[in-house]
What we know:
The chain is built from 20 helices and 25 strands. By secondary structure, it is an alpha/beta fold. It has 3 domains: 4-125 and 262-428, P-loop containing nucleotide triphosphate hydrolases (Rossmann fold, 3-Layer(aba) Sandwich), CATH 3.40.50.300; 128-247, 2-Layer Sandwich (Domain 2, N(10)-formyltetrahydrofolate synthetase), CATH 3.30.1510.10; 444-526, Formyltetrahydrofolate synthetase, domain 3. Strands 1, 2, 3, 4, 5, 6, 14, 15, 16, 17, 18 and 19 form a 12-stranded mixed beta sheet that branches. The chain starts with a helix and ends with a strand.
Amino acid sequence: MKSDIQIARETTLLKVADIAESIGIQPETVENYGRYMAKTPISLIDIEKAAKSNLILVTAITPTKAGIGKTVTSIGLTLGLNKIGKKAIVAIREPSLGPCFGMKGGAAGGGFSQVLPMEKINLHFTGDFHAITSAHNMISALLDNYIYRNRTGNKVVKEVLWKRVLDVNDRNLRFIITGLNGFENGIPAESGFDITPASELMAILCLSRDVNDLRRRIENILLAYSYDNEPITVKDLGIAGAITVLLKDALNPNLVQTTENTPAFVHGGPFGNIAHGCNSVLATQMAMTYSDYTVTEAGFGSDLGAEKFFNIKCRKNGLQPKVTVIVAAAQALKMHGGVPYKNIMQENPEGLQKGLENLKKHIEIISSFGQTIVISFNKYLSDTSREIDIVRQFCNDAGVRFSVNEAFVKGGEGAADLARCVVEAAENDPSPALRFTYDDNDSIEQKTEKLAQHIYGAKNVVFGDKALTKLKRISGTGLEKMPVCIAKTQYSLSADPKAFGVPKDFTLEVNDLVINQGAEFIVALAGKIMRMPGLPSDPQAKRIDLIDGNIEGLS
């Protein structure tokens, strides 16, 4: 089979103006970024129309290095829905340069189930990530200037909470010292870098409802504490307007197309393990305004992205998915069943059967939110009929719909059966009100414990010294009303990345809390999660090149 980039390059693209017009958007209302990409103004969103669209969430079992194929499924399902005569649009996140040049090499789908132009989407795209990076580091520079100029008087800074960001995997930047080599170069201080998708501004961009909401959230960002233990925010620095200016264009969703020339909105990119892992609310609402079916996805497994999609994104914006699709793959299930990575392409019914415990847990997680479930089995070439039948029978016994998805090799045709399953579930099954894991009035400790116990399966939660200090600051304030976003490894239901399957009776250790006052959620750092990933021993960057004017190695 041809590589992803070959398939992308051989696909005849329609001009983005034609893509816009195909769903009822007048071409003159969009702002073109070349021939095949455009920004769509948020004024086009119609909440009443959006409420009539069927919202479909795509999530997955616990991911492994064998891969799951969640984005391929999200795009493929959209292609399949259009193939069977439904008006469907996909809304997904933008790729980060860090993973593209690190582990993944690209994150725009794969095979015949991609969003295009994939090279541009995977690289600089419309500049949203650069806008986030610039705006975030502008705040850092202005905060440092405030500290330098305000060494006496009111609100002298004692503790800085705000770090810097860069969209590169660089472990050397996690902890640094700034302001060296003389007073004229600033005041020496400990600092560090997170990756851009972990920026609070990324979360703010993806949760804001309009430019006024964007500015309000930016004003509320907590940057530091004074010697009087008073919070210092962006509003205190008087710079919210400048930061809003840097982000105003990035706020508008990006319109592109799929390998079958159907519309796609690709916008925002918070990671699912260190942030809330969903594309922007505005992109979702834009897609829902112009479609009968909107397919969106949440990062990593249901314990991370889907949980945050429900408890954070839906809670604050009134979104109500009709169906949740859980993606599973035989190779990943076998890894969860204890099969060594080197053997996962070999038929192993026993290992697969044992690994189904992980799928069962994810079905329980999604069921806890009151969702109707469809299982999408993402088929690989090495999968056997016997293995597929085992998973099918398991799903039948569990009372959930099952479909084999072959969108990677067949495009929309390969996902037509999955699309029919989803339509049947959306149009025939009852759609109860979304059930949240915790109440707004629960304390931060209670919210964290409910997530750990009811979603992950933990026995208890232990808060470290740093986390306990933050809990004291939060206690008795409006911050207690905010949702909790647990940052942990994606490779396990626990905080131990080596604990495959379904870990039991473990303790979740919360090392620290990050107060995202602008994004309006509290981040609980669990285990050894890194907000600035490092590069692998064999980074994908070694294979990315420009050959005869063509980009190679992105997938």
